[in-house]
Amino acid sequence: MGAAGRDSRYAQHDGEAPTWYEASARTHPTWPVLKDDLRTDVCVIGGGYTGLSCALHLAERGHRVVLLEARRVGNGASGRNGGQLGSGHRRDQPTLERELGGERARLLWLLAEEAKALVRDRIARHGIECDLKPGIAIAAHRPRHARALAHEAAHLNARYGYDRIEVLDRAALRTEVASEDFHGGLLDRGAGHLHPLDYARGLARAASEAGVDIHEGTPVTGLAPGAPCTVTAGPHTVTADAAVLACNGYLDALDPGFGHRVMPINNFILATEPLGEERARALIPNDVAVVDTRFVVNYFRLSADGRLLFGGGETASSRLPADPGPLVRRCMLRIFPQLADVSVDHVWGGTLAITRTRMPSIGRLAGGLYYGQGYSGHGVALATLGGALIAEAIAGTFERFDVFARLPQPPFPGGRFLRWPTLALALAYGALRDRL
Fold first, then answer.
1. If residue 393 lies in a helix (H) or strand (E), which one and from where to where?
2. What are the sequence ranges of the domains in the chain?
3. What residues contact 425, with CB distance under 8 A and at least 6 apart?
C-alpha cells in the first residue's frame, strides 16, 4: 500500500486485528456457548440483522426463542458493512413496475419505507447508540447516470409522493462531496447512515432483555426440518416448532437446497487515520453518506472520530484475499486524490449475499423452515424488516411476508459451484466498464 499505508491492518474474522467498528464499538457483550439440549418454539440460526430482528419480534409476541450464532453477534456482514440506511431496493421503482406491475411495485416501495422507519424506531425505543445520521448522496459516475437519477427522482415524487430527494447538478454535488469524479446526482434526505456493529449489538441486547436465549460460539452442524425441527450444534440439539435460517452469505453446508439462488460475494472497507475536523469536513461538508453509480460501487462516509470510511472493490470467491488494502486504497484515491498522504489504520473484508434479481430472498420451505437472505447491499433496512416479516409469518400472518416470498427467485447459472467463475467474469467486465 506504499508508505502511507504501512500501518494498515486487515481484519477478516474474530481473533485477527479488529475492524474499525469493533475497535470503536461502545459495548462488547458476550453470550454463552450452548451447553445443553433445549426445547423451544423457534430456533433462529444466525446473529445478524435478520436473525436478531426476527428473534426480537417473536419474543415480543410471547414466543420462546433460541438464537444460535457460530461466532459472535454481528460478526458477519451485519457488523462489517458500510452502514447505509438506504431508500427503496437495489432495483429502481420503474424497473420493478415493468417487471412486477404497479401494485406490487408500490407494496415493495411502502415496505422499504417501513424498513427505514423500523430501524429508526428500534434505535429510539431501545436507546441504541449507533451514530445515526441523516442523508445519503448518490453520485453519478457518468453524465448519463446523472440524467437517469434525475428522472428517477421525478418518478418517485410524482408516483409515490416521495419528496425527500433533491436533484444535484455537478456544482451542487461538489458541495456535498469534494471530488471531481462525479457529474451530479441526488441527495436523499430520507435515508441515513449509522455504526452497523453498534446497531447489531443494540438489537441483540433488546432481544436478550425480551427473553431471547442467545448463544455465541455455537456453529450449527446439522438441520433436520420437520414437526418439530431439529437443529444440531456440536454435541447438543435444539428442538423447535420452527427454525429460521438467517445466515445470508455464510450459509455454507447448511444449505437445504436453495443456495443456488444466492451468491456470496466479498466486499472491503478501509478506515483512514483521523483526519481532523477541518480536513474531514472538507471532504464531505454535510456529513452525509455517499454511494456512486459504478457497477462495482464505491461507498463512503465520515466516522464519528473524523476518519474516512471507504468501501470499494468486490470479489466473487469463497475465500477472502490475503490483503485487499491496495485495491480499496486505489479506489479511494481515484475519488479523493488529495488523500495520497493519509495513512490507513484498518482494512477489513466481509461476505454479503446477492441474488440474481438483486431483490431479497425471503421465504419458507416444508418442515417449518423459514429463511431471509440476499439483501444485495440494502441489508441494514431490509434485513431488519425481513426478520420482522418472518416473525409475522411464524405467528400466522403471511400477507406482508408473501409480498417478498412471491418474488421471482431464479437460480444463478452454473449451479452451486460453476456460478463462481460466471460471476467473477461479470464483476471483471463491470469493473472494466467503470474504468472506460
1. helix 379-394
2. 3-429
3. none
Q: Using CA atoms, how far apart are residues 413 and 271, in angstroms rounded to an integer?
A: 36
Sequence-ordered alpha helix ranges (H) in 298-358: 325-335
Assigned CATH topology for domain 3-429: FAD/NAD(P)-binding domain (3.50.50)
Instruction: Decide: 364 and 389 in contact? Cβ < 8 Å.
Output: no
Residues 63-94: tens digit of each pLDDT: 999 999 999 999 999 999 999 999 999 999 99
Instruction: Determine the Cα–Cα distance for residues 320 and 349; give it in Å rounded to an integer.
Output: 7
Which residues, other chains included, contact 191 with Cβ-Cβ below 8 Å and sequence gap of 6+? 84, 85, 86, 87, 116, 134, 135, 136, 164, 289
Q: Among residues of the chain, what percentage have pLDDT more than 90?
A: 80
Which parts of the chain sit beneath pLDDT 70? 1-17, 316-321, 414-436
Cα dist from 388 to 27, 60, 173, whole Å: 24, 11, 36
Distance CA 217, CA 272 (A): 31
Confidence (pLDDT) at 412: 80
Residue with cell 439462488: 261
Residue partners of 374: CB distance under 8 A and separation at least 6: 248, 261, 262, 353, 354, 355, 359, 360, 361
3-state secondary structure of 222: strand
Q: What is the pTM of this model?
A: 0.92
d(CA 419, CA 316): 9
Rounded CA gap, 216 and 25, in Å? 18
- Grid cell, residue 421, equals 467463475
